[in-house]
Amino acid sequence: MKIPALCAAGLLACNFLSAQPPVYLYLASHNETNDRSFHGLDYDNAADYAVIRNLAQAICDSVLAYDAAYVMMPESNFINACLKHENAHTNPEDLLQWADEQPQIEVEPHNHFSLTAGPGYNPYNYADLACLLDSCGLAAPRKLMGGFIWRNFNSPPVAEDWTAWQTPQPGHTFPGYQWQPQILWGGGSPGHVDDFEAFGVWRPAAPTIAGFGANNPDQPLVCLGNGCNNEFIITDTTDVALLANRVINLLDDIRNGTWPPEAFFSFKVMMNFRHLPSPGYVDKVGELLHRLQPYREAGYFVWATAEEAVAAWQDLHPSNEDHFLAGCDDFAISSDTPTLTGTMQEPIGAQNPEIFPNPARDWVRIKGGPEPCERVTFYDLFGRLLLQVKAPGQGEIRVDKLPPGMIVVTIEQRLTKSIHLMIKA
User: Fold this and answer.
1) What are the DSSP calls for 347-414, one per residue?
2) pTM value?
């Protein structure tokens, strides 16, 4: 990230009235070292890598189009493939370096270090991944430790792996390189059957059931709660409308709850690289961002990366004694159509027109808003007219002749609304 953390924190903190706790939202993704064995994705193969790389680029473009936030957490196999296929050690336009240079995106290591022979064999630890990302041209340091094991597990036997990183540790493959994280994220378990799911910011006291949720102000690593793993994920079968409902209902629950002064919420919508090639996946991401946009504009949440969220917390709470922790059991997360409470009497966006899909390649439709739609006009970012369609109704508008990239769409109904649209190449 190239935005100074304190500046970002100050800007984010200003977006909330004192009556509502801060709520920060972001997309997150990772891949696994066993993607080849279990899912047929061989990043060492140039064709396989190109497929995932281009789809990940399209997701980044959607994030930029909506000024959203995205934490991309690659494993060693994907980073090595970027070095191999994109000459990332010398190429300033490789995916990982380009993505991390965008203000809305941060690239951080996700790791499951294992020297056991088999599909999960991985001779790279977190310091090795930080070294590899440095080799791709990313500006040091990496701050986040993604996918750590939060306590010891017996069946199968897996040991916690975060307490050692309270001090700088050397790489396994690159022993001359040392690294220490600042932020713990995504406390996991074997098979994700006992992940530590929570909202908040604290400094875990110990790698035990009782100790991990206790705050130790002398512990140097800050843990950022990542929300509820199973409720907020985009897979190959996800119904985006239901996913958006879950997010909106949680936002409304937070907005209208009774919270202590230090209440602070940050959560993610998760993606996994193995799902990217499924039909329409990138469109699902764009649709979710589009559905959430009115709630962002209404102040229900702020898009912020994990690093920005922690910086915002520390700007508001400079003492290590300060912490906040709320478990997922405190919320009844529903996929039902939102019936917003509090000051909102009807769903946000009920009277707003929408353009779908976004990003688009061949066509778009205008949905919703006060009828009839009188005119739809497409401009480039310099204000030059690209296309104008009168009285399109609910039919398709062909956009395949428009140049790829960001454009502005003006929809004229009873009121005029402008929407940013991403045209895919």
Assistant:
1) -TTTTS-EEESSSBSSEEEEE-SSSPP-EEEEE-TT--EEEEEES-TTS-EE-TTSPSEEEEEEEESS
2) 0.79
